[in-house]
Records
---
Amino acid sequence: MTAYFVRRLARALTTLFGTTFIVFLLVRVVPADPAVSIAGPKADPETLARIRRDLGLDDPVLVQYGRYVAAVARGDLGQSYVTGRRVTDVILDRLPATALLGLTSLGIGFLAGLVAGLLTAARRGSRTDWAVLVASLVGLSLPTFWVGNVLIYAFGYRLAVLPLGGYGTVRHLVLPAATLALGVFLLYARFVHTNVAGTLASDYVRTARAKGAGPVRIYVRHALRNALIPIVTLLGLDVAALMSGVVLTETVFNWPGLGRLAVQAVFSLDVPVLAGTVLFSAALVLACNLAVDLLYGVIDPRVQRG
Amino acid sequence: MGDRRRSQRLLAVGLVLVGLLTIVAVAAPWLTPYDPSAIVVAEYRGPEPPGPAHPLGTDTLGRDVWARLAFGARTSLVVGALAMAMSLVIGVTIGLVAGYFGGWVDAALMWVVDLVLTMPTLLLLIVLATVLPPSLLTIPLVIGVVGWTTFARTVRGEVLSLRERDYLVAARALGASHGRILVRHLLPGVLPGVIALAALGMSGAIGLDAGLSYLGLGVPLPTPSWGRMVSEVQTYFGVAPWLVVLPGVAISLGVIGFNLVGHALIDLLGDRRA
């Protein structure tokens, strides 16, 4: 178990190191002179030169990269060009909103999908399978930002029961969470359906049934437990995909989270904030994948040897 | 099995959607008398609902919505196809090389795949779209550079299973060069599986392009794009709901069409091989 975990951890760390390189490269080529961004377009050349020297922009690229990695390792992601605040603080300010939105929609979508998948798996057969597949293919093809807008129109404007956007109360959370949860729900409903229906049709479930095991025992002990491994894997992979949905949903609903922060940073060319957000999100994804790998080892002892 | 017929039906529906979209995109100038960027109302009195002169109404600037949708299909398909081609070339090359050479080459390339998979796609796209000046060529480039990992993984897997086949062992024994084996012997073997992935890649690229242009980072004005059509008019949803609904339906149909084709092909090709 320990060896397995150490191997996974080492891989996650090397990947994180790789992401710092990609982010650093992107930051280097973003066509905005940091000195101009900080001092404004009317600054005289001497001021600009001084800022460049202070930021170390005249040093060789490798030296700059080394300095960047060292700073990131200390948790220092630089300072915003626009507000001058520490990027780490800016991100931590925005994190709760994104965590609230992301976890709510992931939780609700996952549980609803699990239940729907289990219920439809009980009635498996070509007709049900077909309905689940088509509903999920069609539903997952709807653009997130559009679903958000349609929900705003229906519940915020027509029925006028929920706020059009913003942040603060549970009522504000309902529509953005529903927008994001829809995709999660459809994905898991189909995935759970396919996997559980598959295990229910397998030989060992037939054996268990022949030995007189009741339907609940078959579902919980046999079908669900075995289907859990691929489901948990998908959960880990899904975090990266969820981030894309978060960026769009936060923009649609004016939700003050990390996604909106990144989009705002693009338009103000606030490179450190943008780079910090990307790096932070990648680290988040890696942490989730690592957690899933661990969980994986607990659920299925076989993987440790792999 | 009914599964096969089911897949064939999905494929048929998908192909019809994709076909219709392609026809609209190609024939756009003949399907509408209007310029998608021109103001076509004589006197602007707010967006006009669908009527005889403008089958899908006019937008918040007095432009013809049907013309914008039809020309928007061009943008979506061109961006989608170029992005998918880009992913395909990168992904197939990396998959072939990783699977064929194995060892540390494979390990290094798969590490890169992991790396790209870890980066949150849309955030990475946003950064890239900021770095490169957005155009009809850079947007597909950006989407393509992010979307090749599935191709690489699948092709690598296929190559691993083909590598020990007799005809490859024979080719190697005859002294064929690595390049010749890769291009003449392995590439044809992996291509059928790649076609299904290409359809899925198209679907993903159209969706991502819509997302980018919704955020204002897509193909620049005056080229009409479906994603921006939604963001341009969303504050008018209350007065002119069709302006928001229609481009969303167009994006969905495009994504669904290619998605169905891809899924059906994976099922059908999988059947054949089994």
Note: The CA atoms of residues 67 and 73 of chain A lie 10 Å apart.
---
Amino acid sequence: MRFILRRLAHAAFLMFGASILTFLFASLAPGDYFDEMRLNTQIAPETILALRAQYQLDRPLPERYLRWIDSVIHGDLGYSFSYNSPVKPLLLVRARNTFFLTLTATLLTWGLALPLGVRSAEYLGRLPDSLISWTMAALLVIPELALALGLLLFAARSRWFPTGEMVSVDFSSLSPVHKLQDLVLHMTLPLLALVLTALPLLVRHVRAAIADVLEAPFMLAARGHGIPRHRLLYRYALPAAANPLISLFGFSIGALLSGSLLVEVVMGWPGLGPLLVEAILSRDLYLVIGGVLLSTLFLVIGNLIADLLLYWADPRIHADLVAK
Amino acid sequence: MSSECMQPLIRVESVSKYYRHRRILSSGHIVHALNGVSLSVAPRSTLALVGESGSGKSTLALCLACLERPSSGTIWFGGRDIAALDEKQMRAVRPQVQLIFQDPASSLNPRFTALEIVTEPLVLQRRWKGRQTRERGFALLERVGLSAEMASRRAGEFSGGQKQRLAIARALSLEPKILILDEALSALDCSAQARITNLLLELQSSFALTYLFITHDLAMAAHIADEIAVMNRGRIVEQGVPQKLLDSPEHEATRCLVTATPQSIMTSRISGA
Amino acid sequence: MATSRHFSMRTGDFEAVLEVRNLHVAYLSRASVPSSVIVDVSFDVRSGEIVGVLGESGSGKTTLAASLLRLLPSNGKIQHGSITFQGQDVLQAEPRELESLRGKRIALINQEPSVALHPTMRVSDQVDEVLAAHEHLSRKARRERLQKVLAALFPTETERISSSYPHQLSGGQRQRVLIAQAIACGPSLLIADEPTASLDPATQREILSVFENVRRRFGVAIIFITHNPSLLAGLADRILVLYAGRVAEFGPAENVLFHSLHPYTRALLACLPPPYGTSAVNRKTKLPVIAGASPNVDFLTLGCRFEPRCEDRFERCRTSEPVAVSLANEHGVSCFKFGR
């Protein structure tokens, strides 16, 4: 229990620090949203100054930060200049879209990596292992960008898959089954891009962790007890190899909001990624800060979950050192 | 030559060692590894330290070898209290007190050759020149029964008994006054144990060594030691010559050890239980 | 006393639970020259008896234990011979049959207790796994059986131990858990390879009596492998002495320990520090040792493997290997001193 409280305190502290840094860096970047307007000679400088004052961009930095923190606590994440709407609803919608994609991708990746890795480790050095390892190595070599672009090209050329967007224009008028079908069609290629890039590394880790454990004396002892092969792998080997994998799982969760940025931008998936990119380019201050902070929150939560899982999964970590 | 007439080589007085198990927000509890231990070892003699696991034997060995600092008490060796020395002074004392561990596989680097292992301390001490170091290394290896052709083989290829010989040779290269053997024979077969024991007896007379022989094998202790000290829960509960301890043990802990020794089971079965 | 039961009986009065005949096991190295680790080993184990296998490192004892359940590493091969367990041919068994043999009818304890248990599974779960693998019982029945087994080995503190993890237990307790796993399904044969190696004498004695209890209560035959002869005194009914992968001597425990025939056995027992040693030796004097080095598996020799170190050798010993000769009291020995 003390452990959990300590971790939560860490997480809170981390978020606080992240908020300061984000605010600082975003605000210190040269220029602001209204700089574009300066190029437009028709707008008077006084107007620009007035606009700045209206959004309180002319106040000193600490004051701005405190005001912002105050509003965050009250649930208001600020105002987006470009979209002319509060930041929070914008972020939430896009975050939801990203979740659809990344959650499915994470589940698929882990769902594939575990059996592949276990099989690879089981047949270490032999044909199944070689096949899997070579395929993974080939996938690892392909850059995410190239893969995403390649898939996009495929979609455009073959016309089997839509190129971008999450749902078709006439989504709301479709029947439920067709709605699902539409979503799946749109999701397939971005999903493929994400899974194929994340898979190789994970398979390697699973393979290494399991191969290590398979050599352990307690595995031989279990075999000697006649425990059937399937149970040996999934009830004995996998839990014992879990430690490094749990840490990786924590990262997977942490990357739920941030890991798909490239794919989203390239393949046109309306998620958090494209929103953030736009916001940064147009200096939409509060949107940027809000977006970055949300991603950071997830990273921190992911790590926290990993720590808690580790604590729960391995009793040795919180073992007492009392002598017998 | 009675050992009482001579000045003891090493004298331990009321040494205690505590380990504190720390937890945040509580004072933690204290583990008493050693609790007021006093003993003395006469030069050129063998003192056997016996006791159950957890009785503090290894902790005492570490304190004597200056690898752990006692929480309180003094250890007189070479005219000064080695428990109170600072790091630099301790480094000068350490060569004189050498430790041989139970598991030779983990105390020797398996990728080093035998010669490298035995000359490493000499090289670090920079006392001898290159060729002399090698010669001395070969001589030491021979002294412990490892032939010259083994000198270039890696330690990982040696058997348990050979590894212990190597560990002993390495310890001897520093010309120690006292050798602490912490369960050094426990991991070996019976015949290897006999051979290493014989080697130790031989070396004791030719190198004028003093042994602190830590073991839970009472039979071996009785065979090789001039005196046996029994440890229990961080204290020395009984000390005396082997014959007396085996025939008429006084303390409960000693009695337990005597009856538990497999040897005694054998003897009692012979006499017809 | 337990041993006398077997002295006066003739063969055939007790049903043999395990029969090993002319077993040859070799390891294939990269150069694909096989090095024989077990050569022509024959022995039997009777129902409910404890057979001690006395062998030093390099004698092949662990290979023997692994071979009995066909658990050799990938480069080990049983070249020749037969292993019959309760009438069933182990060497010809299908993988499915083997899996049902292991843990259920023959149990093996062959690793250090501190590493033979799964680090993150509770004790009760680990024993339960063995039960679940072999016994098709309802969950309730299984739990009852589990309770019984754990209570037999941990008469006090059953609850606490059963919900503990291995790292919370002492060496002796872990060994008991291994024994619990071994007897959970009621095997007829238990093979224990150096079960007391890392324990201190008091715990060793405890574990030895646990084995005795298990034999008495459950009628399990036990093969107890060790390098320490003094552990077998009073525990084993018969003792098999293994040297360089061959049977040097095999017979009733008392005979092998106190009236040994084979020169190796005599020399080995003489190595022990007194009060046991067969020759009277004074304190702080050298112990009699076996001259020479341990046998090298890679050397192919014609004669007796112990010959280079034997004090009683003669010409014949160098040129041919002795076969087992059975003397009075079912005491067998492979040495030319005793004929043939």
Note: The interface with chain C takes residues 46, 52-53, 159-160, 189-195, 197-198, 201-202, 216-220, 222-226, 242, 256-257, 260-263, 265-267, 269-270, 273 of chain B (CB under 8 Å).
